[in-house]
Amino acid sequence: MRRAPTMHEPPPIAFFFSDEYARFDYGAAHPMRISRLALTVEVAGAYGLLDGPGVRVLPAKPAPDEDLHRFHRPEYLAALKRASAGEPGWDLLRWGLGSGDNPTFPGLYEYSALLAGATLSAGRLVEAGEVRVAFNIAGGLHHAAPARASGFCYVNDAAVLIAEFLARGRRVAYVDIDAHHGDGVQFGFYDTDRVLTISLHETGETLFPGTGFPEETGAGPGEGFSVNVPLAPGTDDEIFLWALEAVVPPLLRAYAPDLLVTQLGIDTHRTDPLAHLKLTIQGFRRAVEILRGCDLPWVALGGGGYDLANVPRAWAAAWAVMTGREIPDLLPDAARRALQEQGIRLETLSDPLAPPDPLERAQAWRYARASVAAVQELIFPRFGLAAGGAVPARGVPMG
Questions:
Q1: 0.70 exceeded by the pTM?
Q2: Active-site residue 143, yes or no?
């Protein structure tokens, strides 16, 4: 039996990574750059975040087919294997493979199995109580459906893990703060009350996948267990964090899940080329702090993020929050060199302040208030919660 930490020791935490990821590539023109994973490790390592008491850096190991079958259909996985091996076939298109978003490339199946295996290992450690928090930066591929690739995602590692938890009688909360709606996870568990899915994202009126509206509340026994907070383009740190705090902590306290799974995409950043939100690294870090403050056994996953300057800073900052360590804003020399090798010249972890567009910000506040009010009306009563909390005046920031 593993010895429990003493009162003076930090609880163990686990970080998953594999050098094998560097073998795979979506293609030079594709926005999903797998190199962001190794760059995150370099920045986190430069801060000394991968060492120290309680920190376990663990390798990713491929998930076997029987684990992936918990969520994905066997015939889809067979098609994925054919695509991975370079076998031609018009039928691949029916599985969402070979499109611009979801190209086929050598080792596609092996890559998907590897990152899903890391998520499963992370979840099993947390469920067993061996670690309090585990972070798989390669995970969070939340768009994949049981029989279809979608939105750069081939295997939905979060859904595979949640399905395994459910098979063992666990109740799970899934919180997704990626700019894109976590549709694959939501609809995978849309009819059960044993998974609470919460997604804060840019509205489907302006962004892929076009879903994730407050009225999507679940079906049958799952009615009231799918929660969506769509946000308008121009949503900044303050608006996003207000919406997050208004919805997520109260629902997690009321639901009291056995485990928390989060998707921490950083395509919410103001410079991301594929979305229109305006978060900064410091706003993202505060969101992670709020999730940590919910004090649940926690499996954290990566997700989107298509500006290479943002991903390593955001996920290093997130890992610092998970470790409970304060780190300086000035990037260490080794981190700056690693970024410079990718053509990125930055000096700090945080972002400089930028003046907002008053009209855009006022519109974003109105949209956020309406989304939160809808969730409080449609969802909160199911959990014995009353709508409440301070609501800002029109276009005026919360102080």
A1: yes
A2: yes
